[in-house]
Amino acid sequence: MYIDGVFSGGGIKGFALVGAYEEIERRGFRFKRVAGTSAGALIAAFIAAKYTSDEINELLSDLDLEKLLDSRRTIIPYPIAKWVLLYWRLGLYKGKELEKWIAIKLAQKGVRTFGDLPPKSLRVVASDLTNGRLLVLPDDLPKYGIDPLTFSVAKAIRMSCSLPFFFEPVRLKTGGDTNIVVDGGVLSNFPMWLFDKENVKLKRPVLGIKLSHNLTAMPKNKIDNAIDLYGALFETMKNAHDARYISRRHEKNIIFIPTESAITTEFQISSEKKQELLELGREKASMFLSTWTY
Fold first, then answer.
1. Active-site residue 116, yes or no?
2. Of these residues, 8, 38, 188, 212, which one is catalytic?
3. Which end of the chain is more exposed for a tag (fewer CB within 10 A), N or C?
4. DSSP one-letter code for 222
């Protein structure tokens, strides 16, 4: 049965999304259109390129995550350089290795640009900080004078995954302007709203996979110092817009996977922790799908 799917952001916690996809696929569901933010955008892109859940699992299992942390070379001692690069380059790591890896894997399925995919089959969310607006790729590219059909899918995913201060922003150049683009989770970490207006006639069920508790069980932010305040501020920015959108009507179509035990930027994650996240995704998807009435 064909359905549409939305995958939330979550960085390294995205391994749980793969586990959920395995169970969804095992139950006989296939995605016609997908959307996502950050890690969810990456998984959505692989699904749009016709990767199976087993193939995605294999891709990620073989990947040395630390190789994606491509810091800039400098003669300055690293503890100092880290802060200098953060100030001038706006991120600790370039993000080019991530884009390169995604491009290679998508090309193996014949996907390089959005023109290689069926129309509307993949949409991902990023944040345009220069213009202060949410950016839906590839839909919004004509606003920048860019032909969506020629735009790199890998670059779009890198935009959506550019966690502020961790990866350098992507500089989207249009004419004489340079637009600073970062992780879509800043404005919408779970873009289930993308399919809402288009599915008034309910052509297909829309299934969401969200890396969090459901709304009633969401843990409160504990704020005792400035670092806690920044963390709570960023979490609120990521979730407030989407939480306001998700009503009881939408909750019944969302698989919630609480992953608070994992850290978004834990690129040194152990094999055991990867398996825990995969199994958590499978377990929560199985529980949900056993009673899902679509």
1. no
2. 38
3. N
4. P
